Amino acid sequence: MAERADATVPGAPTGGPASPPRVAPWLAVYTVGRLGIAAALVVLLWTLGLDLWSGALFGLLLSMPVSYLLLRPSRERLTEALAARSVARRQAKEQREARLAGD
Predict the structure, then answer these.
(1) Helix boundaries (H) for the chain
(2) For the chain, which end, N or C, has fewer CB atoms within 10 Å of the first or last residue's CB respectively?
């Protein structure tokens, strides 16, 4: 059977399939960014005079939309890496099933 190239799968410079981007660095950047923004807002609210629990609660609640806006580039790269990894895993599964079926 002739194989056809899928336009959604990026190719490597050598002409073969590209390896999926690494997910762990972008996941770490996004997680550390979210925690950093939350900590900064909590500390800011404490310095403005809110008590311990109110400052922590409002800081965590405010960190959600702030993180959504500030961490957009890293969130998009993480999403792209996860999508590319999913495509690569699906192709590997199809190739493995084709080998097992004897095609």
Answers:
(1) 24-47, 52-70, 72-101
(2) N
